[in-house]
From TrEMBL, chains A, B, C, D:
Signal peptide coordinates: none
E.C. numbers: 3.13.2.1
Protein name: Adenosylhomocysteinase
Gene (name only): ahcY
Pathway listed: Amino-acid biosynthesis; L-homocysteine biosynthesis; L-homocysteine from S-adenosyl-L-homocysteine: step 1/1
Length: 425, 425, 425, 425
């Protein structure tokens, strides 16, 4: 039986203090969650609910967990990636009233799943996932809990993709909000969050610059667009690889080079995968690459770069730098892999995950979705649901208000005009 | 009874030659339509069909009309805006086998509608619209034709908006493809086409520059995004006005200032409306503006800038320059309106409409939609329909092929991975 | 003996009215010249001076000529390029008190030089040049005038380059201000002016778009940087060719591809030369180009693209469009040359030259340089002189003031700190 | 008497290994220095020379020190900023044959100057400075050494500024190369190096994002331009403050807001100083700032933000986060200062200094300047000298060659054309 993190770590006092400081910093820059806290504290919308969470446990997520607890929920949380947990934040979160945290960094697979089970044993009525591991575990191993679950939220592109596949197979047994698919999430978190934090993490892990570099971005979805845009904004020459012709064309019309990976491999200085798929960079690509290239992944799972194949090709492997593993080829070329091919904005030693403000938006949507499930969960059938537009819009309005940004509203004449069709030229 | 343009103009011979040269230039840069022409010439998909068109009659549209005729259709065409017709192209088009053109520049309202009636009297089986005037006229005045109409296509945001309103009212009596809403149309035509051509038209009408100018973009839909992005790319300082909070936030996160028009009015050097709505710039805004500002519209109708109100405020009005009307206020300020508030990329003296290549994409979608209606029209119910994804994708592939851009395809393992959900971390 | 333009053209009345309207528009957007006009009108600094000018005679230059005349000078002006004169402006200028204009569009070489001689026969005491033709003609054919010439100003990179060569040869007999080399001129006129106006002129001459195009920019000096930056800002993929390694590296670090022209020729969709040198694009390059490419020049002279060689390669030549000459190769490829290889922002049918505001800055510097020559000309030796920093700074301050832009000034402590060196870490 | 770092630190073995790994990584990405190493190893240009260095002692600088030693010099080095030394690199460098390193992190003032004296006691014949502390110390305290000093190099804007002031006072007693002023240094190091590394350091110290933030950049010199450009490339809204009107105008024409700091203070979310001056942000500005703002300095000295004044205004001060000191105002506003107002790209806990590649360029220029001093030092008089153009150009060519970037060269006809001036229009 897994115990909460506080029971397991050395010097929990110091960790708690360090974690609290991190949370305080995040809270300062999360005006949406702060605004919702005022509302939830008064309304206690989550009284009697148990929220099970499997997310990257660091300061920003902690503010979401805390927010749900402040609103009356019993919260049990664990990590969704063994390398992304900040132990100090986990301990600080474990000390928040109403929250139990099981997340611990660098645990082995067994301990990782044991922690997830510990969360499930709280018998959650609502699940909040980042990669759908919790949903999957409940469906596979705890089907008896499903009846009492109101619904859940899923944060990532990849998770939503897998949930939709599960739903198509008729296997998804409770309603899930596809938080990833909201405008608020996709446009800000994916584009700005993944883009900026991936590049900053790579720069600060390697001490290399972007200017004049050829950066190959694999995939031109929202994450890929963000990475490409921000890399271009640092004066990199961007090459995009894609499998979908509209996206390929969109990248081409943006002014980027679009190439098959086979050709891009020989041109790139830095490779960043964002596809959500596997085997995006494989043996034939490694063989074409120049000495000294960087390989990083910004997609959810660590399967985009085929590290097994790279290991097989290499005559030597060593840590070139904290967070950088060098694979030396027989011909002397060194291919440098960051963060073991895991999420580069989360898993390098200096990585901090998504920027605070974009997570504030994302978690604001999560929070109002949990509120929606509590208030109207019974109206949603089992399956994947888009976040209702009014909730997404509500969060945008809270954010604009917090930023002091005013905008126009339609006059009556304009409302009427937009609804009419009888006008001539 | 309206006659074809050729019967009505002076020196049709010279106009035809001039129009043909324009069409030849367009054809050189429309590889998608050229690729489809090869297919249609062989297959004759439109034999026995009559296509009625109401579009901006200039060289690029002429290539679409010609393409449909080459594929076997009888084509009757008129303009969708009295200022956007190029008479020479209209004459050249009228000479194409299978095409009759009624479009003429600067006709009065009566002649404009008479030309539309002339098109309708061809008894079209398919309609192709840019602003839904043809659909509206048929529904209002020629309901007896509806039974024999297979369906139609609508090109613009505004037209689709009005069609959806009509559909919601249960008034739309045949299937219409919302060509405007395809990724191919919205992303390329609206963003790149409207953006680039509006700015180039303003620059070449005024001889003014963008660097250091404050450009107020009203509306942050696809057109507004394009105008903002391209203006920023010319070193303008962009201000966005919006009524939808997610769009307002998106503009803010892009780095633009977001302001209510009331405040923006006092800051702007150039104002460009892209909302598709009316009364976007009105008296209170005119009163706040600086001397010498430019006012231009890139939305479909000329109702976004309230020119009647401006006229009332003005103590003098005069043509400051071809395509620029100056309104002088009592306090000496001069507000310069381009193209009478009509589409600035179509209606100034030097304007050429959307760039050839983006219209090639847009018209490629139109052409395959017409083909779809002929092949499977009966499968579509009356109402607005999204363009089937496979058609849009087909056009993207033709374009990439023509540009020599290669892209990747999914391996079997990848296809399978994308469809699965049982994978762990 | 050449007569003023007014004596030579049809319907001078109408031309004068049209030219005046153009000048009025320019004046509205030239706040620096307007500010100086107030000063010059009061001070009459140019009384007793004769200013000879050889410049592109269009509305903006007319404001400079008028400004000098308002300040008391007798002004005689002709064109510096047979294709860039606007006859209506020339006539309107000729009607300004104190100004005689000889400039006429599309005159032959003989008439062009006769007009220049007519200017020289006014016995200028100050010369204002755009390409140093006036300086050269005086030195070669009217050496007797040199003694009474106080000095002159040269506007262009190319002109200054040639003046420096002349100076190095000990042949330059009076002081010349290298207006081109001031920060105000190089950074704004070259970068923003040439960049924006060249691209807008190409777009509006061809109706083609920039998004996704490969644009080859030959030369990465100030003009080349402007063209590259603005093309990139319209989503073109920019390739730079250079002969100087630091500039080549600068372009590379900006994120552009840098290639020898031999390779760039095969990749480009549009080629824009900005080198100030000759034979930048020659036979071997034409042979490597794709069908449908555009060739344009933004450098001073029409020698950058070797049109003779292109003519020899071509099996057919025809006007594909106003301002576009198509050269058809034996293999069917069509290479489209804009404006006969002359300045593309001046010499296409729709071209308007540099934007008004940037010329305002450039001409503001010209005007204060002429004032400087009158006030202190005897202090300058024969040869090329940089514009004194204080004059350039004066113009910047006038401009900022006109734009309503405030900036900081150094405190005494800061002044002292900047001048000291005894401070520790 | 100060001993080398190795004698002073704990566990030098482990530090040496860690330092070597860092140097190896840097070397992999410093192709210019690697190319020069081959040359110097063969030629031994520095035999019999003693090079005294005071620079930021981290991996990249270590490569320069090593390169000079490989070329035959005796090298003695210390830090130029108590917070920028990496002890492990200092130890690894101390182990390089021919190098003695005295640099140690976080020493007090006394130890800092003692280390500088230790370097001077090696009796350098050449000095390499980053902030001119070594030059100043020698002139003030060791004038007897000056006769045997061939010359020196200075890396920074600020150092060169102070050297010029010293030179103007007639106090500079040996020749100094103003490495900072070369195109290679200013354009790449300042623009790309300072820009990218400052932003990445701020992002990774705070976990905040740039999108939608208002970033106030104080100073629009090369560093300020880099910071502004890169911030804009991350979708920040940039505000520039300046004291020089041409620079202010340049920023305005780039599309940025230009404001006096007094107004900017109320608008900014992040403030980055790059002026090289003192008291850029002072009490009146702190009082106008919003809660939660970030304050960072990217100029050489820590005097740009007046921290004494801030301390006086604050009712509380605490470490909000590693590298972030919060100053709490009486009204509850928290102003967050990064890295104690020292160089933010060097002095935060995660900071790594300039990117490797830009330092490679900068140090390549340093290395060839030292070679120039040895070869032709006697030809240079005492005073500040620009780096000879041929040296700067040599380094650019080495770099382009290493990057595989080819460029054109002038033909004989072109050379001749550029030198001639007799050509007509």
């Amino acid at each position: 039986m897994t115990e909460p993190i506080t029971e397991r770590v050395d010097d929990p006092e110091a960790k708690r203090e360090s974690g609290r400081r991190k949370m305080e910093w995040a809270r300062q820059h999360m005006p949406i969650c702060e605004s919702l806290r005022t509302e939830f504290e008064a309304d206690q919308p989550f009284a009697d609910e148990v929220v099970g969470m499997a997310m990257h446990v660091e300061a920003k997520t902690a503010i979401l967990a805390e927010l749900l607890a402040v609103g009356g929920a019993e919260v049990a949380i664990t990590g969704c990636n063994p390398l992304s947990t900040h132990d100090d934040v986990s301990v600080a979160l474990d000390a928040v009233e109403g929250v139990t945290s099981y997340a611990e960094r660098e645990v082995d697979d067994e301990a990782y799943y044991a922690a997830m089970e510990a969360v499930i044993e709280h018998e959650p009525t609502i699940t909040v996932d980042d990669g759908m591991d919790l949903v999957a575990a409940i469906h596979e191993d705890y089907p008896e809990l499903i009846d009492s679950i109101v619904g859940g939220c899923e944060e990532t592109t990849t998770g939503v993709h897998r949930l939709r596949a599960m739903d198509d197979d008729g296997e998804l047994a409770y309603p899930m909000f596809a938080v990833n698919d909201t405008p608020m999430k996709r446009l800000f978190d994916n584009v700005h969050g993944t883009g900026e934090s991936s590049l900053a993490s790579i720069a600060m892990t390697t001490n290399l610059s972007w200017a004049g570099k050829t950066v190959v971005v694999a995939g031109y979805g929202h994450c890929g667009k963000g990475v490409a845009k921000k890399a271009s904004g640092q004066n990199a020459d961007v090459v995009v690889t894609e499998v979908e012709p509209r996206r390929a064309l969109e990248a081409h019309m943006e002014g980027y080079d679009v190439l098959p990976m086979e050709e891009a491999a020989a041109e790139g200085d830095v490779f960043i995968t964002t596809t959500g798929n596997r085997d995006v960079i494989v043996s034939e690509h490694f063989e074409a690459m120049d000495d000294g290239v960087l390989l990083a992944n910004a997609g959810h799972f660590d399967v985009e770069i085929d590290l097994d194949a790279l290991s097989e090709l290499a005559v030597d492997e060593y840590e070139a730098r904290d967070g950088v593993q060098a694979y030396e080829m027989a011909d002397g070329r060194r291919l440098n892999v960051l963060a073991e091919g895991r999420l580069v904005n989360l898993a390098t030693p200096v990585a901090l995950g998504h920027p605070v403000e974009v997570m504030d938006q994302s978690f604001g949507v999560q929070a109002v979705c949990v509120r929606e499930l509590v208030e109207s969960g019974e109206e949603y059938e089992a399956g994947v649901h888009d976040v209702p537009d009014r909730l997404d819009r509500e969060v945008a309005e809270i954010k604009l208000d917090a930023e002091g940004v005013a905008f126009d509203s339609l006059t009556e004449t304009q409302e009427e005009y937009m609804g009419s069709w009888q006008h001539g030229t």
